[in-house]
Amino acid sequence: MAWNYLPIKQGEGQGVLEIIQWRFSSPDTAPLCEFSLRVELGRDSGVKASSFAFGVVKSVSLAFTLPIENGKTGEMGDSVGFLAELVTCICDKCAKLRSSNEKSGLHQFTESKVIYFIKPTHKWRPVIAKLVGKVMYLSGLKKRLVVVGKESYVMLVSTIKTKVSLCASVASYLPTDHSNRGAYRGIVTGIYLHGAVIELDKKVWLLIHDTLLVPHYSLRIGATVSVRDFHLVHANFAWTKVIILGSCVMTSLCIDAFTVSDTKVLVKTEEKSALGNFVESLNLSAKFWVLLSVSCFKCKFRAVLSDKELLGSINSAGLVQTYISRSLPPDVFRPHNSMFVAFCNHDQCTYSSGHDQSKCKLIVPLSNFVGRCEELWISIQSEMSESSEIHCNNTCDGISYPGYRRRIIPSDDFGCILMGNIRACSSSGRLQLVDATGNIDVAIPDLPSDLSVQTIYEVKDYKVVLEGFRIERDTSMYDFGEPLSCCAIFKRQTYRKRIHGLKLYVQFCLKDTVCVASPSRVPSNLPHSENHGANHLLVISHKFPLTNKFPFNPAMSSCSSLFAEALLFPCKFKRSENGQLIQLGKFQDALDFSRRDHKKASEKGPWLAPCSLASRNRGVSATTLSQFNVDSSNYLVAKSLARILLEFKCENFLSYQMLRIGGYYLLNCSEGSSPTRVCKCWEKGGSFIVTENTLQSLSLSFSDCVNLKDPSGSSLDELVLLKSLSELHEIMDLPVDLKSVSQGITNFLPPIQVLSVSSCMQHMFHQSRNFYGSTDLEEQRLAQGDLISVCGDIEYFHDNDCDSVSLAASKCLKIPNPRGNNICIHLADDNQMVVIGGNLSRKLYPVGFGVGASATFHRLLLTCSSNRKEKLLLTSVTYIEITSVRKVETNREPNKQMLKVDSLIEPLCHLPPLRLFSDLHNQDSKITRFCCRILTLNVLVLESCTIGSFPAYKIPLAGFVLDDGSALCNCWTDDVQASTLLSLPGICSSFFSSDFSSLERAPKRLLASGLCHCSNDYGNNKNTVGYYLEHMLKKHHKVIVKNHGVSLDICQDLLFHSGSGKVFSILEERLLNYIILSSCHGPTFNVTGLVMDASAMKKFDTYISESAVLRGCMQNIWIREVARVDPLKDAFNLILDIKNG
Amino acid sequence: MFLGVVSQCSFSMASLGIKPGVPVMLRELQPSSPFFKHGQSLRLTGKLEAYHVENRIAVISDGVVTLKVNTRNLTDLTFCIGSWYQFIGELVIGLDSNDMLLQARVGRIVDGLDLNLYQQSLHLSRNLMGWI
C-alpha cells in the first residue's frame, strides 16, 4: 500500500489521505495476511444477525437503488445496495463452524449463494470487487426472503453487524464449471456511442449494458483492460462476422494499464431514452446491430433530420426505433429483468442465445458502399488478371483498345440495405440515391411521376452494376481498409470515389422499396385540386440531354437547365372539385384555331365523346371526353400539333428524368383556364417552365395486348434499366383505356420512328446514293443530313482522337464542350453493326452507357463525309436511352459473324470484284475494283485550310485519266484518295536533287522567293511537298491546275489559276509541275470506285476541259478507296476467293 | 480524480513520522520556490528521460526542468522511457543548487494524465485547502 496524507492548513488536524496504490499480498508471499471489514458502530442496535457465509467471491453486481417495502413494518423507502455471489462450501465441517479462525483444510466450494449488501455496507463494493476469487468469511448476516415481483428469493442480507474477513490461509478449490463465464484481456482500440460499444484489439466488441460499469476517466483508447464474466456471442450478420462480449450484471471490468497515448475521454453517462430502453430489451447480437444501425442513421441523415426526429426523446420513439422495431423479428426481444432476477438467474438466462442474424443487414452509409464496390471492382480486376486467359482486346480500325467489363451483383452478396432520398443531380441530371455521406447513381425502371424528393426510401432488393475498362495499373496500390467493417461504420469513416474509370450504379424497382419517412411538410400531391389552370394533353417527342455548357464554372453549372420537346394536343381539360377531368372548349375549336392557316381545313373535324378516365390510387373515377374520330384529316391534325419546349430548372430535374419519349402527360397550365381564351402554350415556339406537380403521366392503352407481355425478367446476366411504356401502365397517374378508339389516336401521333441497326443500314445505303455528286464542293464541309433514331446493342465503344470527320462535324455543329471526348460507338443488332462517331463528354454518359448495353439513340445525325462514307454522328441534341445492360466478361466469345460496316462497300461484299475499264458499260454491280495507274491529270484543285492553328492544304477535287491496260477512264476523287494518288506525303528531296537545281541551292532560292518558311523553326517536315504547298497556298489561297494538252503521254499544257489572282513564280510552277509529273506514269494502284451517272457529272462540267473530251474517255468513276498494290495481300485475297469458290 | 483511489477522512497526524508529499509541478521547482528546500517532501510528475540501472537513478523532465530520482526504495515499478511518472519523496540538495535529487518512496506510472487539467486542479486545491 502506498499513500500520501496532505494536511489542510486551517483544518486543525484534518487533511486528505490519498491512497495511491493498494493490493492484497498474494498468498504465496504472505500467506497469513488477513484483514477484516466492519461497520463502525457507536451503539449496539440489538439487531439479530446470526447467519454466516464462507466461500469464494465469484462476482459482484453494480450498486443499484430500488424501492423497497419492509414486509413486517410496511415501511417504504429506497434501498441502495449491491449483490455479490459467493460459492460456498457445504461440507459438514463448515456448516458447524462459526468462526473463520477455525477453518482449515481443503474445502470444496460448490454451492452458489447471493448476498445482498444493503446500506450502509454498500460502500464496500470496491473492496468486495477486488476480492473476487478470494476466500472470505462473512458473519453477521441475516437470512431474508426478498420478493421481487412474482418471484421470491431467500438470500443473505447484510446488517450493521456484518463483518467480512479474508481467509488467506484457506486453500480453495473451485470446480471448473464455476469459472467458465469468460475472461478477456486486451487493448482498447475504439470507444463508440459514449461508451456503449468498446472495441478491443480491433477484434472483439464489448457491449456495455450500463456505463456505470466503466471507469469513466481511465477507460481510453490505448488502455489495457480485463473483462470477466461476460456472454460470448459469435454473430454472423449478413455482411460480416463479429465476436461480441456482452456485459451483464455480473461483468467486471478493470483497467490493467493506462493508455500511453494522449487520448480523450469518450465515455459519457446519459439519461436513458426510449431508444436506450429499447436497445436493452434486445438480445446481444440484435443489440449490437441496432447500435450499429443507430450510428449509420446518424451519419446518413444528420443533415435532413434532427437528432430528436432520428433518435427520439425520453418518452417518444424516433425514426430509428420505429424502423428497427418493424424490421426485427419478435424472437430477438427478451424480457427486461430487474437486477435481482438477472443476477440470481444468471446462468439460466438465454441472453446470448442467437436468432437468425443473417436477417440483420447493414443500413450502409452510401460512401462506405461506394468504397466497398470499388474494393470489389479491384478484386474482380486482379482476379481476372490472374486467370490464365489471354486478354482479348477489342480492335477498331486496326487499333486495339482495352477490354471492357461489366458485373451485375445482387444485393444478397452485399448484405446491405440502401437507404436515402432519390434525387436528380443538379450538375449531371442523373438520378441518384443520396444520403449525407455520399451518393450513388441509380436506374429505376418504373419511375413514377409522383416521386417525392423528401421521402426516404429503403431499398432491400437491388442489383449493383460495376463496369469499366480494364485497369492497366497495378491494383495493389489501392487500399480501402474494409469500408463495411463495424469499425469503419462506428468511426463514420467516409470514402471518396477513387477509381475514375469505374462506372457504378444501382438498379432497383420502386415497387420493391419501402418508404421509411416522408417529412410532413411535403404537400400531398393526391388530388391536385390546387391546380387551378387547365390541363393540356401532350406527348413528349424528344428529350434534350444536358450539355455541359460551363464545365469549369460550378456557379454556372448550378443554373443549368434541361429541355424536352413536346407536342401539344389541341384540347384542354380542367379538374373539377371531385377529381373529375372536364374538357374545356371543344376539340374542334382548338383545332380550328391551330389550323387557321390551313386552307384545307376540313368541315368535319375530329370530335370528342365522353369516355372513362380512371385514376390510380385516388379511387376517383372521372368521366371525360377523349375520343378522336378517325378522319382523313388526321395527318393535318398531327401537323397542326403545337410544338412546345419544356424547360426544367435543376430543382426539377427529377421531373425530367421521369419523362419518357413517346409518353403522354397532362400539363397543368395556370393560364387558359377560361374556355375561350387561348393560352400562350399554343403559340409557335412557345416554351414552358416545368415546376413540381405540373406534369402528370398518362397511360393511354390502345389495345388489349398491353399486359399480355411478360414482365422483363431481371436475370443476373441481363438487367432492365428502363421499362417499356406499355409495361409502365400500372404506375401511371392516369391510366386511360382508349382501345375503342385506338385507330384514331395512333394515326394522330407524329411518327417517332426508331430504326433497328439493320434498317438503319438500309436507310444509309439509300441515302448514300442520293448523296453522290450532290455535295457542293465549293462549300465548307458542313455536316448535313437527317436526324434519325437507332436502337441496338453497344458492341464496343472507345475514345477516338484521330477521327477527323467527326471532329470536323463537331466543329461545324458547334458542340459546346470542346473537351468532350471524341468517341466511337459500335452499335449492333443480331447480324449487323454501325459505327457512331461524335463528341460526348465522359461526365454526360447516361447511366448504363457501356459495352453490352441495349441503347436507343434519338436524333443521330446521318451525314455523308467527304470521302462519301456514310457516318452516324452524335450531336448535342442526341439523347441516349439505355434500356437494359448485360454482363460483360473480358474474354468474350468472338463476334457472331458480325460484319463491321464502316463504309457501304463492306456490307454488300467484303471485297468488290476486280474488273476492267473496258467492261464498265455492261456490268451490273456499281462498286468495282480496278488495278490501274495514272496516265495524266485532268484537273487538280488545291485549297489552303487550317488544322487547329497550323496551316494545311486540302484537295477538294482531283481528276485523273487512269489506265488499266484495257481502256482509259476519267476518275474523280478528293482529299485522302487524291493525296495518295499524287504521292503527296512523300519527301520532296528528289524534287531538289533532280533536274531543277542542286540540293544545296534550292532552299535558299525558295526562301528568296517567299516559298519557304522564313522562321528558324525548321521542323522535320520542311522537305516535304506538303510543306511547300502550304506556303504556296498562303499566297494564292486556291490553285486550280487544268490540263489542256491533248496528248496522253506528257502533261505539256498545264494551266494554273490562282484564287488570289496573283502571278505564279517560276518555282511555284515548277513545284506543281513536279507534283503532277511525278504522279503520272507512277506506281500501280488498287482503286475502288463507283460508276457515276450523267447527272452527277454535271457538277464537274466546269472542270472538264475540251481537251479532256477530245481524249475520248467516256467513262467516269468516283474513287472511294485507293491503295498501292500489295502483292502479298492480293495473293492472300486470291486464295480466299478460290477457297470460297 | 486522477488518482487511483482517493479517500478523505479525519486522520491523526501525531502517530505518523512521515511528512506529507506536497504536490508540486516539476516546472515550478526553481531555486526561488518555497519548496526548494533540503528534506522537503514533494510529489512530482515528469516524463522519464533516462534510467540508469546500475545506481537506479531515473531522470524525469517537465518542460526545461529535469530532476534525478533515486528509485532504490521502489519495488514493482517498471521504467519505460517516454512514460509519465509520479514520485513522492524527499528532496536532497547538494552543494550546488543544480545538484538535486529526489529520494523517492512512492512511484507510479501516470500515463494518460491530462497535465493541463492537473495543473489547474492543483492551483485550485492549493488555494482552497491552503497547502503550504
UniProtKB/TrEMBL annotation, chain A:
GO MF assignments: single-stranded DNA binding; telomeric DNA binding
Positions of transmembrane segments: none
Principal subcellular localization: nucleus
GO cellular component: CST complex
Xref: InterPro entries: CTC1-like, CTC1_plant
Keywords assigned: Chromosome, DNA-binding, Nucleus, Telomere
Location in or out of the cell: Chromosome, Telomere; Nucleus
GO aspect biological process, one term: positive regulation of DNA replication
Family: Belongs to the CTC1 family.
Name of protein: CST complex subunit CTC1
Organism of origin: Rhynchospora tenuis
Lineage: Eukaryota, Viridiplantae, Streptophyta, Embryophyta, Tracheophyta
Automatic annotation (TrEMBL), chain B:
GO-annotated cellular components: CST complex
Top-level taxon in the UniProt lineage: Eukaryota
Coiled-coil residue windows: none
GO-annotated biological processes: negative regulation of telomere maintenance via telomerase
GO molecular function per UniProt: single-stranded DNA binding; telomerase inhibitor activity; telomeric DNA binding
Gene3D superfamilies in UniProt: Nucleic acid-binding proteins
Pfam families xrefs: Ten1_2
Name of the molecule in the record: CST complex subunit TEN1
Lineage per the UniProt record: Eukaryota, Viridiplantae, Streptophyta, Embryophyta, Tracheophyta
